[in-house]
Design brief:
Oligomer: heterotrimer
Strand order of the largest sheet of chain B: 1-2-12-3-13-16-14-15
Largest sheet of chain B: 8 strands, mixed
CATH architecture of the largest domain in chain B: 3-Layer(aba) Sandwich
CATH topology of the largest domain in chain B: Aminopeptidase
Number of helices of chain B: 9
Strand content of chain B: 25-35%
Order of helices and strands of chain B: HHEEEEEEEHEHEEEHEHEEHEHEEH
Helix content of chain B: 25-40%
Radius of gyration of chain B: 21 Å
CATH class of the largest domain in chain C: Alpha Beta
CATH architecture of the largest domain in chain C: 3-Layer(aba) Sandwich
Chains: A alpha+beta (351), B alpha+beta (339), C alpha+beta (332)
Distance between the termini of chain C: 30 Å
Distance between the termini of chain B: 32 Å
Structural class of chain C: alpha+beta
Strand content of chain C: 25-35%
Shape of chain B: globular
Chain lengths: 351, 339, 332
């Protein structure tokens, strides 16, 4: 499958934290084609294994990209059928006003997030952002009609289709971090053309957006020698400071900081330079906001790397990435993995 | 001198190499087993006679500091903080950057050019930069890289009545105590552990406890001291010169009451002054250690440090000596199986 | 099933703040020891009681610790200063009576302040009725923890008392222990410590027990009081089956199984979407390789106040749901 087709299928399927099982039917078949084993663990992480060649010491590399996305959840149904809701993961309330949504009840229901007409607003009201607790969703049914269709706890997603912009840029909901899952898929394809010693575990993790939960349990289960989180980083836009952002189309961000094993990071940079793969640096002094923070402190401690795909407008429904960045991320990962061997691993991890 | 060497070394969280090497050098001839784990923690073991309880004594090696995020066209360096630093202490300080310890200064707009309102507001990190004296970005890039760690340039100074001023007393004072214990104590078995990245979220401690599986742990710290005049006594976390501070609770641990009482009793029996750490703010490696695997018992013993997390931290040598004395006595009780 | 008022009252009035759960642990142990196969206490003080069975290994967690105040300073006149153990609001604490483990009672008041909205714990103190520091030190030490003084009332409908959180969960677990005669599943009832300061006891006990399935029993809030924030849980509407709080999104299949059990047994239930807070389930489900976990909540008004209020019927429904759930064949 083409990377863009996969991304489109992933982004157009809702997988709000806790609901990731909806992606099993998409991820399992395409990953299976290139891997030796694929399982879903107790919390719902999808773990695909690609065995290494001549892997005498049974060395293991774990890649993690989270497949969950932020969203909304029904918390109450008003007498007139309006739905009150809460957020799952970090949502800027200003970005959801006036959106079309799908309520994932017994069946998918179309709805809109309503607002007060400007004519009726007080002067000082117009400058204040509306809180989520003051918003409602209108699905056009009465409470009685809804009782058999919707229950408290049903998830709600913003209705937004995957679209192509100019050049290699695409826009969709939840490219954070389905772009990372797509990068893993590209990496598997690259690896199937290359020889590598380590067993590689490709983990599509659950519940990252609510507290990197799936990464904790999957890393514990796999207990890898090296863990690599693939997530998204802030793409540069005019209002953001240059030091906090990554430029679009200039390759993955390689994270530097306490979450990252310095020896492995140096090796990763060397590989990028050797193979002429563009990259940028991303600075994160402490634990990163990625699955990497969980992996690093699992069991006796796991040397960890983080790669970030530049992404604009994070946590909105119009996230933008550049496909080239995803491909370069995949390429860098694949070449990096081929350079890890039973002979050099200990040296790389040594302080 | 050990504490001078330790405090003047560079060891910002995530970059503890220099401190680690000093410690390895100091202790390797005095321990029976030593390893550096996958995160960079030092786990050392001293053999002793069999004891039903496994004792671990820990001190974190890292310190708060800065990290370079960008080099601008004029060759000025932008930075971010590593660990909890009050942004107001940064301005007008000399710093050392990277492995080669390139000297730089954090400057500020001259007061003459400031508007009156400007004085009233603290300077934001975004308004600050480090000047290393180069003319442009290219020259800067030859000396400094993005991701380089930065420490305060602050010498160890003894002053006043047995006081010490240095940077990174939190927690090189703990490292120093633990090194001295490891060197001096004989025939008492315990794990001496030096952890990484405490200041950015107790990162090293969990994996260490997972590996060692201690029954009892003592965490050594430099802790906050704010004993200014006229402050109500319940608002003073610790005093200088009143002896080691024993923790009651903090954000990460409710310290085991039995163990805590055992320690204060040992102090009383041996006429060693001690005080309680009265604040419940902050946290330390204990938070991770006591909840790892099936759980274990911990205590924290600290040397009070004024101006903690600044280039000019201050401690008392008398507190240091009393803390050391208490630790030694605790180890003797441990050997007798009475801990 | 009848409501066991004596058990409920004894549970909420037994001393046991986070970090010093000895008394409540002894009390619970006495209540359950004749009904379980094995009891142990781990190094943090969790009480782990096993009822053997052949099916799935299920850990049921109810926390036995309480919020309280830890003494940090005693002044020359014998007034005590303190810090909070767990979530204590200064507004609720104001002019309450507190009690220490040794039975000494004190009252809480505040230094004179102009603006009541500036009320802070650090401006408040405890008066234990002594004349000076020395007298105080004979009764209380720095590091001791006091709790709200017990005050229990009930009527036909509800209970008003401090510390329903989470002694009502202990009640539900104890009644289930007594109610289950021949366990189908392998049941580990864990009365956990230090939940109120960060789910600490559940974390270590789940690591030890290694369950196939986790169930936490705790209080949740309610949205049925005047002008309450929107929350579709109310008193006398049945037991609450948790969907989410800040610590967990419960396992969807386990949750569905719980709903089916409630339906098939005519047990009234409501679905709980809590926008804050956390329970032991949060720690349990992230243990080792992950544990499918759910939670049964008891709808409770005014949580963490001295007048927590819950419905007896909801409590009994929670016991019923827990027993039926534990006696069922759970396939995930």
């Amino acid at each position: 499958m083409d990377i863009k087709e996969l991304l489109e299928a992933l982004c157009n399927t809702n997988s709000i934290s806790g609901d990731e099982y909806r992606l099993e039917g998409i991820i399992m078949p395409v990953f299976k084609e290139f891997t030796d084993d694929i399982v879903v663990d107790k919390l719902g992480n999808i773990i695909a294994l690609k065995k290494g060649y001549n892997n005498k010491g049974n060395i293991k590399v774990m890649l993690a990209a989270h497949m969950d996305e932020i969203g909304l959840m029904v918390k109450h149904i008003e007498e007139n059928g309006f739905i009150r809701f809460t957020s799952i993961g970090g949502i800027d309330p200003r970005t959801i006003l006036g959106q079309e949504v799908i309520v994932h009840g017994k069946e998918n229901l179309f709805g809109v997030i309503g607002s007060k007409p400007p004519h009726l607003q007080e002067k000082d009201e117009i400058d204040r952002a509306i809180k989520i607790e003051d918003m409602t969703i209108d699905v056009g049914f009465t409470k009685e009609q809804l009782m058999n269709l919707i229950s408290i706890g049903d998830t709600i997603s913003i209705r937004r289709d995957f679209k192509t912009l100019q050049g290699n840029r695409i826009t969709a909901r939840a490219l954070d971090d389905k772009a990372g899952v797509a990068a893993m898929y590209e990496c598997i394809k690259e690896l199937s053309r290359l020889q590598h010693e380590p067993d590689v575990y490709f983990v599509s993790t659950v519940q990252e957006e609510v507290g990197v939960r799936g990464a904790f349990t999957s890393a514990y289960g796999i207990n890898p020698h090296i863990g690599i989180a693939i997530d998204v980083g802030f793409g540069a836009t005019p209002e953001l400071s240059k030091t906090d952002t990554l430029e679009m189309g200039k390759g993955p961000g390689i994270t530097i900081g306490g979450n990252i094993h310095p020896g492995l990071r140096k090796k990763l940079v060397d590989v990028a330079k050797d193979y002429n793969i563009p990259f940028q640096y991303e600075i994160a002094p402490g634990p990163t906001g990625t699955d990497g923070r969980a992996i690093q402190i699992t069991r006796e401690g796991i040397p960890t790397l983080c790669l970030s795909i530049p992404l604009r407008y994070m946590h909105t429904s119009v996230e933008v990435v550049d496909i080239l960045d995803i491909k370069n991320t995949a390429k860098l990962l694949a070449f990096f993995i081929t350079t890890i061997t039973n002979t050099n691993l200990e040296g790389l991890l040594c302080y | 001198m050990l504490l001078k060497k330790l405090t003047e070394a560079s060891g910002v969280s995530g970059n503890e190499k220099e401190v680690r090497n000093i410690i390895l050098d100091e202790i390797q001839d005095f321990v029976d087993d030593i390893k550096v784990d996958r995160l960079g923690n030092i786990i050392a073991y001293k053999k002793g006679k069999d004891n039903p309880k496994k004792l671990m004594i820990t001190a974190h090696m890292d310190e708060v500091g800065l990290m370079i995020t960008d080099i601008d066209d004029m060759g000025l360096l932008k930075f971010t903080t590593v660990g909890g630093i009050d942004k107001r202490i940064l301005v007008s300080k000399p710093v050392l950057i990277g492995d080669n310890k390139v000297l730089g200064v954090i400057g500020a707009k001259p007061i003459h050019l400031q508007k009156r309102e400007e004085w009233q507001n603290a300077l934001e990190i975004e308004q600050l930069y480090i000047d290393i004296g180069v003319n442009n970005k290219t020259e800067g890039e030859k000396l400094v890289s993005i991701g380089d760690y930065v420490i305060f340039n602050s010498q160890y100074v003894e002053f006043g009545d047995k006081l010490v001023k240095a940077k990174a007393l939190d927690n090189r004072v703990g490292c120093s105590l633990l090194i001295e214990l490891i060197k001096e104590i004989e025939d008492i078995g315990f794990y001496g552990v030096f952890t990484v990245m405490e200041e950015v979220g107790l990162v090293g401690a969990g994996p260490v406890a997972y590996t060692v599986e201690p029954d009892l742990s003592i965490i050594l710290e430099g802790t906050l001291c704010y004993d200014i005049p006229k402050l109500d006594s319940h608002l003073i976390p610790t005093h200088l010169n009143k002896g080691p501070a024993i923790s009651l609770m903090d954000r990460t641990t409710l310290f085991d009451m039995e163990f805590r009482k055992r320690i204060t009793k040992i102090a009383e029996e041996n006429h060693i002054p001690y005080q309680y750490r009265k604040s419940s703010m902050g946290g330390n490696d204990s938070g991770k250690i006591h909840t790892t695997k099936e759980g274990s018992v911990t205590a924290t013993i600290s040397v009070p440090c004024r101006n903690i997390h600044s280039p000019t931290s201050v401690m008392s040598k008398q507190d240091y000596e009393n803390t050391y004395k208490l630790l030694k006595t605790i180890l003797l009780e441990y050997e007798k199986g009475e801990l | 099933m009848k409501f066991n008022s004596q058990l409920m009252e004894e549970l909420v009035t037994t001393y046991g703040p986070s970090g010093n759960e000895d008394n409540i642990r002894i009390y619970i142990k006495e209540q359950i020891e004749d009904y379980v196969d094995k009891i142990e206490v781990d190094s943090l003080g969790n009480l782990i009681a096993r009822k053997k069975g052949n099916g799935k290994k299920i850990m049921i967690a109810a926390h036995m610790d309480q919020i309280g105040l830890m003494i940090t300073d005693i002044d020359k006149d014998g007034f005590l200063r303190f810090t909070n153990v767990g979530g204590i609001s200064p507004y609720i604490l104001m002019s309450q009576k507190v009690i220490f483990e040794n039975g000494r009672v004190g009252v809480v008041y505040v230094e004179p302040i102009e603006d009541i909205s500036k009320l802070k714990l650090s401006n408040m103190f405890i008066d234990i009725g002594v004349n000076n520091k020395e007298e105080a030190e004979n009764l209380v030490n720095i590091g001791d923890i006091c709790i709200y003084k017990p005050d229990y009332s009930e009527n036909d409908n509800v209970i008003h008392t401090r510390y329903l959180d989470d002694r009502v969960g202990c009640y539900v677990a104890i009644e289930a222990i007594k109610g289950i005669k021949n366990p189908k599943n392998d049941l580990y009832f864990v009365f956990t410590v230090q939940e109120e300061v960060g789910l600490r006891g559940a974390k270590t006990s789940a690591f030890k027990v290694e369950p196939d399935i986790g169930i936490a029993i705790d209080v949740t809030g309610s949205g049925d009081t005047p002008k309450a924030k929107t929350f579709a849980v109310g008193l006398n509407e049945g037991t609450a089956i948790k969907i989410k709080d800040n610590s967990i999104i419960t396992h969807p299949k386990l949750r569905e199984h719980m709903v089916n059990i409630a339906r098939n047994n005519d047990i009234p239930y409501q679905m709980e979407v809590l926008e804050h807070g956390g329970t032991d389930s949060g720690a349990i489900h992230l243990t080792k390789e992950g544990v499918p976990t759910g939670a049964i909540s008891i709808p409770t008004r005014y949580v963490h106040s001295t007048i927590e209020t819950a419905s007896k019927k909801d409590i009994l429904d929670s016991v019923k749901l827990l027993i039926k759930l534990l006696e069922s064949d759970i396939q995930l």
